[in-house]
């Protein structure tokens, strides 16, 4: 039966380029330029806002009470927990909430967030989840990959908190829950439908690669 692993395997080259991007490698080794990380943090704040919009759309697309509860719980977590934590983390890097409120969106942020919303609008709930999967599941895999690398520095790494956040038990639980949801739905799709979803996953992964590159280029 199809599962999330079929999506990532079908896009193995793009998935590897995303998980092992030079932005990720430099972050793990503690040599990522601070201005690159600040730029990424600011754009990630804007991404979170659109991520919340995507979960609001997921609520609209839900067909069962369980799906509706899942979507609204995710929306509440982003709006009332994650955004506040992100604002606090940004302040530690010298980025004020006023700074965040005046940010222009980079082209990479525009491209990825609007793609996700478009997938949800023209497709169904599964399309939306697949478009979001490189972000949620990908960050979990990236944190695990970093911890497995001999070159990753933790003690003297200014980005150690970022690695800890995405390797935490709470985030692992969220990743596992999303994998289980996707595996259950993907197991029911036809070969043709799976091919459509692979295309969505590949495009979303390519846009995530561009998001990392945006951080490096500070563009």
Automatic annotation (TrEMBL):
<keyword id="KW-0784">Thiamine biosynthesis</keyword>
<protein>
    <recommendedName>
        <fullName>Aminopyrimidine aminohydrolase</fullName>
        <ecNumber>3.5.99.2</ecNumber>
    </recommendedName>
</protein>
<dbReference type="InterPro" id="IPR016084">
    <property type="entry name" value="Haem_Oase-like_multi-hlx"/>
</dbReference>
<comment type="pathway">
    <text>Cofactor biosynthesis; thiamine diphosphate biosynthesis.</text>
</comment>
<comment type="function">
    <text>Catalyzes an amino-pyrimidine hydrolysis reaction at the C5' of the pyrimidine moiety of thiamine compounds, a reaction that is part of a thiamine salvage pathway.</text>
</comment>
<feature type="domain" description="Thiaminase-2/PQQC">
    <location>
        <begin position="13"/>
        <end position="217"/>
    </location>
</feature>
<dbReference type="InterPro" id="IPR004305">
    <property type="entry name" value="Thiaminase-2/PQQC"/>
</dbReference>
<dbReference type="InterPro" id="IPR027574">
    <property type="entry name" value="Thiaminase_II"/>
</dbReference>
<dbReference type="InterPro" id="IPR050967">
    <property type="entry name" value="Thiamine_Salvage_TenA"/>
</dbReference>
<keyword id="KW-0378">Hydrolase</keyword>
<dbReference type="Pfam" id="PF03070">
    <property type="entry name" value="TENA_THI-4"/>
</dbReference>
<comment type="similarity">
    <text>Belongs to the TenA family.</text>
</comment>
